[in-house]
User: Fold this.
Amino acid sequence: MSYNLLKGKKGIIFGALDENSIAWKTAVRAHEEGAEFVLTNAPIAMRMGQIKNLAEQTGSEIIPADATDMDDLANLVEKSMEILGGKIDFVLHSIGMSVNVRKGRAYTDQNYGFTEKGWDVSALSFHKVCQTLYQKDAMNEWGSIVALTYMAAQRSFPDYNDMADNKAYLESIARSFGYFFGKDKKVRVNTISQSPTPTTAGQGVKGFDGFIAYAEQMSPLGNASADDCADYTVSLFSDLTKKVTMQNLFHDGGFSNTGVSNEVMEKFME
Ligand SMILES: NC(=O)c1ccc[n+]([C@@H]2O[C@H](COP(=O)([O-])OP(=O)(O)OC[C@H]3O[C@@H](n4cnc5c(N)ncnc54)[C@H](O)[C@@H]3O)[C@@H](O)[C@H]2O)c1
Assistant:
């Protein structure tokens, strides 16, 4: 169902790797709602990715950018404004990667070079994106910037490893940059804290199958899917949420406020 919520709006969407990606689903929904946007991802992801199919499906152009590289980001923002014919209304930061997780390093045995790289990609890149947009005065008034996060920023999930720290930092950037973007440009900045979701990044977390099944049974509404997340993100890009800013918004079927569920209790009473 389409409501024309993003009619006439222009955006930049980071992080569509394949059709499971949350960014991919969001791009499809934003297109259905009338938005025009540029798709971007790291040059390496372009080579292996299927992003061209998404670009064709949504009538979008692709501009490669490593989200940790300030020159790439400057080029991305300038070219996007040229292609879209004006300033930007919405930006999705849907980027995450831990080198420690990839290399099988436990949280108690980090390689700090890996830690720094993962932090740069997963957390600091959000500041870099915001700073580039801010300094280039690239956002329209009442624009909306959203990044994706996970509840391991607030509570401990042992296998989420150093991504937990990266997400805490990311959420803090939304608050801190949200202040300046709100005051100076009337732009909102939020993070969405999403349920575990079967994507390339999600499945990189050790024990993901147990993790997602547990969350499903703990959430009164069940886990939020990538499609659900795309819907929610579109609402945050729309004019219906103009005064929502500097928030970390849980989108998790109620998981974050549930102490225990009957389904989980029953497993201990067998
Ligand atoms: N899948 C989950 O369970 C889950 C839950 C909560 C939050 N999230 C978050 O959602 C976001 C999107 O992840 P996803 O689950 O759709 O997985 P995904 O693997 O489809 O997307 C991650 C993206 O990050 C991109 N990326 C990595 N390094 C980059 C760089 N240097 N520059 C630019 N892009 C880079 C990848 O190419 C990929 O497109 C991430 O922030 C992730 O942490 C995921």
Residues 41 and 60 are 13 Å apart (CA to CA). The chain is about 45% helix and 15% strand. The longest strand covers residues 139-149.
